[in-house]
Amino acid sequence: MNFIKKLVTTLALASFIIIPSTHGFRDVPSGSALHPAVENLTTKGLFPEGTFFKPDVPVTADLFWEVVLRDSGFVPESATFNTPLPPNIELNDSLAQFLREAIRRKFIDQSIPFDRKATIPRYKAIETLIKTKAIRTIGEPSKAFLRKLGGTSPSVKSIASYLPSLEAAYASNILDNYDIRDFRPTEPLTRRDLAIWLYRYETKGTKKSTINPRGSNRLRENQQRQISEDESKKEVEKLLIKTLQVKPLTTIPNEKIFQGVLSDLENKYRFPAQLSLEKKEKMIEAAITAMVKELEDKFTSYIEPEKSDLFKDSIEGKFEGIGAYVEMIENQFTITAPMDGSPAMKAGVLPGDIVTHVDGKPVEEKSIHEIIKAIKGPAGTIVKLTIKREQDKTIDIPVTRGKIVVPSLKLEFKSSIPIIKIHKFSRAVRGEFEKLLVEEVLSKNPRGVIIDLRNDPGGLLTSAVSMGEFLVDEGMPLLFIEYKNATQQFTSSRKGELFGQKNLVVLQNKGTASASEIFSSIVQDYKLGTIIGTQSFGKGSVQEVLNYDNGGILKVTVAKWLTPKKKWIQDNDPAGIIPDIHVDDPTPEQIKENIDPQLDRAIQHILGRN
To answer: To which CATH superfamily is domain 318-405 assigned?
Structure first.
């Protein structure tokens, strides 16, 4: 599978999870195990200070090279200016001197544009750290080290090549026993990893190449001799199973058949000119897409390179189209939520609507990205959606496309009651919410507060955690994340501004999903307020986004989240958070007439309690 591995080598990982600070880092308390390592970074001036350290966020390439080179003693002010820069880096760029040094040391290629936001695979990070510490490596890992790994080793020699660096890092006290048992070489380096590895070497590091010094001469001699192919292959295959945390079957069922089919097509297909490199890449893309689809997880999907821009547009929140959040649910293109005030909402599109045709053309055999591409278009143009709604009732809805900008928040007052509409749990939402809450809401001593989460599809889990802290007291659990082999608890680090608020109402509907459901669950579990509306979407899982160097994106379910009372909202039938007071969603006619029965009920609820 070498050709596949080269095609889809992982470059970046966007994690949705933050853990709870040193030097102002609120998510690394002084008593935590991580605190000394982070303190080491900040004290030495290696890491920029801020509100959150974000331990489990991948280290981006720009941060990695600055931290690692500074730690090695590199001083950018005294560096040479003679080394050429990557073609996309300006001479006055703040990163320029670090990149010159990385190029001088042959860590990166000067001819390739530098991707600041690329992530660093863990094995590459270890190889770099070993070199910056001037630690020598041996030609092959010692048998003692392989035994420590359980006698296992990776099935592809190109992956096995990092093992000498791994042994040197372990022997030199950069890595510990847990690290090498659970190394995960191709996963992105996280801020936690970098802080701990540098701290270990700072406090107890020693330069050693191997854990078996007596055998080092023999091992160097082995560099000059070819190792038995059979023995090497067995060790390599076993370590892939170990380091990539996969069962033996992940040596890939029918791998030979897969390779054989591709080989036979190349050798025997009557029209070889059609089998261009581009065509073969598309064939592999189709195989990957089919493989992921076979999981039958509606929240896990592979996004092909030519369609990844659509996904990135949705993250950036600026595009031209109808303004609706969508999911492919049970192979049906489903509107999970029209954006507030969007063309879709004004035209009467509702959460749960299933799109069967776009401009009269069926979408049944198309992917989610093909359908989105058909729906998007220049502002001012019209797209006709054929919608299936309520017991197979079908209607046609013409929607005039517009320029869509997704804001984080909106504040309005009705009957002197503040209504804070949260559109999406973006990175910026916490700061915006705090400023708005303190300066424009609580300063007026309102009779109550309404948080409107309707049609909020969620966003970043880190934002859900920081927003949850507004609701509770210090030390109260916010949620639990269950991975395959571990559970992580998020606890509030402070007393929130809304804790003790007597008349708090949360509005939700079927379009309230994921991170916004975390917010609702905190309110409901602790009885901090009243939830009004309809049952929420019911997305109790966590996804990570992996970017590959072919431009493809994998959105994969990695965990499920539980409410503060350890309930899983996907266990409900139907899934979702049940409101305390049920009020039906506004009808299309009511929306057009600006009538909102759910908001009206929330206002009545607050006024009736005063």
So the answer is: PDZ domain (2.30.42.10)
